Amino acid sequence: MLWAVTVLAGLILVLRGYIVADTLLGLHRMKQLGEVEPSLGADPPRVSLIVPACNEAETIGPALQTLLGQDYPNLEIIVVDDRSTDHTGRVVSELAAAGQYDLHLLRVDHLPPDWIGKPHALSRGAQRASGEILLFTDADIRMEKTAVSRAVSLMTQEHLDHLSVIFQTLGGNWLLNALILDAASGLLTMFKPWQAGNAKSRFFMGVGAFNMVRSDCYTGCGGHQAIPMHPIDDLMLGKLVKTGGYRQDCVLGKGMITVYWYASVSAMVSGLMKNSFSVFHYRLWLAAAAMVLIGITDLLPLAGMLAHLGAASYLFAASVGLRLAGFAYGAALSSMPPVTVAGALVSPFINLYIIARAALVTIREQGITWRGTFYPLEKLRKSAPLFF
Fold it and tell me: What pTM was estimated for this model as a whole?
């Protein structure tokens, strides 16, 4: 049977090599927002920057300061206070009262049936907006002062209807950074954002930290009203744009769009509980298949290279080496310390736990609880469209 193990090790190595090569070449082809030269002309389009916020009093102040500091000359900012029970509204009101900015606070006190809070807040913000271009972001995102100007310039130059920007995470220890890289690599492998701009490709992209879309495109593709019960609304907006025949692209935002995403490993595990199962369309067999794939591609090579399996052990070791090399590139691209690579040996175990726990808890409770609101599994399955 050793020959069968050797064949399996060879196949895993080929698969790992393809994933690493495809991802690295894809990332190399993607533009950096920071490399786009702002060129707006005399009459730049009005941009409505929409920020949903639910109990974000601790993060929204510093984040809003970076949004208010944008050098874009025709910008309005709409903060949608989505049923917050903390001082979120007061923080925003104090900034608005200064009178120096085109900043508006919209309070939502009631969540209608068959809506998840965030898509509903984004939809309300879009209804209030007056801009030709809408920019959806989060309440903890920080933007370099030229980010909006560069993005609008790129949309104009490339005749885009939708532009998403992949953010850079800040802070984090070696294991948290490894988990973030692992999550990112999974999304890159699944969605291939470098293909989003190819009209003939089925791949699409959307990023909650920076989803910029022309208002006529947003209305034409249905907007958030078409995805009222999907927890991953940012990606689904990208799908609506792509399937609607509009032009989209995705770029990298290193140094332009940044966020302290999670404070700890436990916070990330808890935060992913709400949407991990939705990636698999709330189907247990799909989640199980993903877990088997992680076990085969990430964990089996670790065990195999330590066993006495002759040539198979060397092939398994090569697979592990390719995975670590991919992590090293990702860490460098994200300005993470080199020690992050060591986390690649541990993160697959935590990923398995996240997927399994999210699926089992969602099924056991027959729904998810997000920001204090319970959403039934039956409605999530019926109302949330599939990724593919």
Answer: 0.93
